[in-house]
Amino acid sequence: MLKVVFKPGALYRLLGIPLSEFENQYVDAELVIPGDVKAVNEQLINAQSYLEMIRIIEQYLAHKIQTIRFDKYPVDKIDKLINLQSADFSLSRIAGQACLSTRQLERKFMERIGVGPQTYYRISRFNKAFKMKETQPGLNWFNIAIDCGYSDLQHLIKDFKQFSGTTPTALLNEEANDVHHQLNIDLKMSFLYT
Predict the structure, then answer these.
(1) b vs e for 26-55, b when ≥16 Cβ sit within 10 Å of the residue's Cβ?
(2) What is the Cα–Cα distance from 176 to 167, expressed in whole angstroms?
(3) Neighbours of 9 (CB within 10 A)
(4) Distance between CA 65 and CA 133 in Å, rounded?
């Protein structure tokens, strides 16, 4: 199995389809980009290794990127500003930095990222907390919660349960038992698109 993870907003730029249309559902990629996915899948089936599979995906994405326009808008960089926010997250301040009203920012986020800016902030904070514990296992969850902008440990646990369906420690244990960790496989694609 091969998984491609896009940076926030990249899939919208690649497809030109509002991500809100994909919210809370599984969508077969062949329904969205039928010819492309079928051709890439055929190549992947015949690939001899994971590295060849990565090369196939990278070549497809490089070709696809050449066909799109690269107009830059302030909202395209706003995810970086949100990731820098701590507990004092302010939607109006973020909207001002994007030169948009709060309502416009919410619509653009739904279109480009698939969730609203406040939800995106919560997911980013959740992800930051998980990665912090994964890279620094000696840190306790309370300190991680405070460092990531949570008001307390219970707030962090609530987000973990909502986004992963489990507690922070259980998710960390599950991730440690993942086949990629057990086999020490790190197959991150060298091609990143923002």
Answers:
(1) eeeeeeeeeeeeeebeeeeeeeeeeeebbb
(2) 14
(3) 23
(4) 35
What span, in angstroms and rounded, lies between the C-alpha atoms of 105 and 91? 9
Which H helix or E strand runs over 110? helix 102-112
- Count of C-beta atoms within a 10 Å radius of residue 58: 14
Furthest CA-CA distance within the chain: 51
pLDDT-derived band of residue 189, with 50, 70 and 90 as boundaries? very low
Given CA atoms 84, 87, 91, 97 in this order, what sign does their dihedral have? negative
Do residues 153 and 24 make contact, with C-beta atoms less than 8 angstroms apart? no
CB count within 10 Å of CB 79 equals 21
Strands (E), the chain: none
Residue 8 above 90 pLDDT? no
Distance, CA of 9 to CA of 14 (rounded, Å): 9
CA–CA distance from 94 to each of 27, 53, 77, 82, 90 (Å)?
31, 39, 11, 7, 6
Q: What is the DSSP letter of 75?
A: G
pLDDT at residue 56, as a whole number? 93
* 114 Ramachandran zone, left/alpha/beta (phi>0; psi -120 to 50): left
**Which residues lie closer than 8 Å to 169 by C-beta, 6 or more apart?**
141
